[in-house]
Amino acid sequence: MILTVAGNKKEYADGLTVAELIEIEQIETPQYATVSVDDEFISGDAFGETQLHDGASVEFLYFMGGGQ
Predict the structure, then answer these.
(1) Homologous superfamily (CATH) for 2-62
(2) What is the pTM for the complete model shown?
């Protein structure tokens, strides 16, 4: 299947879950990542059971703190 991950189209095996995609893409500090699939946020405890579909758009978002 074809997914758009962080704006880049890539091919992956069918039936891939969000958790498996995180491993494949070697996402740093996944415990701090927020994942959006087709503009819908997925909770961290659902990563292992959320299957991705052909044509899905996936974004990995991180909270950036800082400032004074």
Answers:
(1) Beta-grasp domain (3.10.20.30)
(2) 0.87
